[in-house]
Amino acid sequence: GMGMGGMGMPPGMPPRPPGLLPPGLISGPGGPLGMPPGMPPPLPGMPTGGGDMDSEKLAQLRFQQVALQYEQQKHAGIAPEVAELAEHHGLDERATRALDEEMKKRKATFEADMQALWIGLEGASNPSGLLMTKLKDMRLGHFRGMSALDNKVQEFAKRYRLDAQAAVKLGEVLDKREDPEGDMVKIGKHLERSNKPSSLMMMLLRDLREGKPVKEPEYAAAIGSKVHEKELHKSRRSSRSREREAR
Hints:
Elements: H1 52-74, H2 80-89, H3 93-104, H4 110-121, H5 127-140, H6 148-159, H7 164-174, H8 180-191, H9 197-209, H10 226-234, H11 238-241
């Protein structure tokens, strides 16, 4: 007669793989039942009486199978290059799908775009957010890859501890300025005196957008800023003037 493993299944169904058997079924009369022919019997030295080891092993196998299925589904239909980029930069599912959809429309520039994104997302504190901004640029036709300026902005952002949003905004604004390099030098002077560089960056961007020049910083360095450590031993007076922020 049929073994327990094959019971209750429509005829012609392949027997269940070993990882899916509930622990009690492994040790039917006459050894492991319901296994495809040619499958190795349970490992020697493993108890076959449905002991702890078995149920743990099975649970583990089951978990690995589910995890594998999940991975495959998560990236189902997604270009392998996109899946690889997503994996490397830890993109969330929404960003991954959005990228895949966008890249399917950009076959002509696929290679260059992907390469630009690989470089541009490296070291971003919020890669999914940064990617969504770049995808918006693509849809609006503003995406020029990660230009030389983009890379300089990324380095600048890293040096002055800017978050992804501040970095993206800075790039957008500098793109329209006469002398982005000169602007960055001046902005740097402000940022190195601030202990909240990203918030300060957002304030400075207002003037930049309106085409105003970047002013020289007129206030002392804040505690915890890059310059503060240097100035500390130079002058003890900085603590008083620190509160007087120029408006």
